[in-house]
Structure formats: C-alpha cells, structure tokens
Write a structure and sequence with these properties.
Layout (H helix, E strand, L loop, with lengths): L1 H4 L2 E5 L11 H16 L4 E5 L10 H11 L7 E4 L5 H13 L6 E7 H15 L4 E7 L6 H25 L5 H9 L4 H10 L10
Parallel strand pairs: 1-2, 1-4, 2-3, 4-5
Helix pairs in contact: 4-5, 5-6, 6-8
C-alpha cells in the first residue's frame, strides 16, 4: 500500500552536450520537479534519458546531479539511462521502474511544446490500466525561432504517431512496443525511422 501512496514523478530528458550541460528547457523541468519534491513528502523522482550522442554522462545522470545539488536526497532520485527519444522514455521507464515497483499512477514533467506528444506516447505505451498526468512547464525561456521549429516538429510527429503507430500497435501492448524499440528490422520501426530522418538535425525529437 505504501508504494501506491507514494508520489512518483518522471522527468523527461531533452538534450545534453559534450560537457554534460543540460539545456535551459530541461532546467525548467527540473525546477518543477524540485518544487513538487519540496511540497510533498516521500516523492520519488525518475530521471529519464540517455541522449543520442554517446557522451560520457547521460541525461539522467546530469539531471540527478542537478537535483541532488539542489538538496534532493540522492535515494529519492531514480535513473533510466537507456532512452534516446520519447517512445523509449516511456518504454524503459515502464520496464525498469513502473512495473517492477507496482506503481499504478504517476506524473510526467516536460515542456508545453512537448506535452501533447508525450501524453499520447505515454498513454500508448502504458495503456488504460495506468493513471498518468503530464505536467507542462512554460516554454517562455526558449528562443522564438527555435520554439516554432520544435512546435512544428512535434505536430508532425504526433500526427504520424496517431495515424500510423497507434493503429499498428495498440495501447498497452508492451510486446509490440518492445519489438518496435529493440528490433531494428521491425517494419513499424523502419517506417518511423524513415519518417523522422529529416528531423535529425533539428534536435527536436526529444
């Protein structure tokens, strides 16, 4: 019963550079997590993200360091350091933390520009058995031109997901998502990779 009562909050990664520095929009996500941690006793925070460039430090590790430096108990911060995009955020978070710990509901923190797609993907990966609330933080700190690119990219990716992936793999089908994430020969994964290829240089697939 104690597990079900405890608040769990997933913070999504959103990029990291070779120095292990996180972008300003991820700082905003972490500040929101810090605020919730300080407001509610017993909160567990799950940092989700590896990053795409194989830097020595993962997004999850850098995010944990940020929070611990702000006074969060290190034992209250869990890491998921395998994911490279939002679909993998959801899949590996479920596989490594949510299912093993019997967590029936949790919150996800991301930015406003990413909220709709993150909510759709987490609902798709977890299915109706889980209660998930996506908490958005403001985009006001992001450069206007960069933000417009991100919003347009998010719209395109969400439309593709609704149109293609949500029909090919039903919500909550972990075996289907597992094959999509781990099997490079999977036809759905190959089609998604081809669709997202033009966005690779945008760095907006987080």
């Amino acid at each position: 019963m104690e597990r079900e009562m405890r608040e769990h909050i997933v913070v999504l990664g959103g990029g990291i550079n070779e120095k292990g520095e996180l972008p300003i929009w991820v700082h905003s996500r972490l500040e929101m997590a810090l605020s919730l941690y300080q407001e509610h006793e017993g909160v567990h925070l799950i940092m989700s993200g590896k990053g795409r460039d194989n830097f020595p430090i993962s997004e999850a590790e850098a995010m944990k360091t940020f929070l611990v430096d702000k006074g969060v108990n290190a034992d209250a911060v869990l890491k998921e350091s395998l994911s490279e995009d939002t679909i993998q955020n959801a899949y590996f978070t479920r596989l490594l933390h949510i299912e093993p710990n019997g967590i029936p509901k949790f919150k996800v923190i991301t930015n406003e520009f990413h909220q709709a797609r993150a909510a759709h993907i987490f609902s798709w990966v977890f299915g109706s058995e889980y209660e998930i609330e996506v908490i958005p933080v403001s985009d006001k700190m992001i450069d206007t031109d960069d933000l417009n690119v991100r919003r347009n990219t998010e719209d395109e990716l969400l439309r593709y997901h609704v149109r293609e992936l949500s029909k090919a793999i039903l919500p909550g089908d972990m075996e289907g998502v597992k094959q999509f994430v781990l099997d490079s020969t999977d036809e759905n994964a190959a089609a998604y990779k081809a669709f997202t290829a033009p966005y690779a240089n945008v760095h907006a697939l987080y």
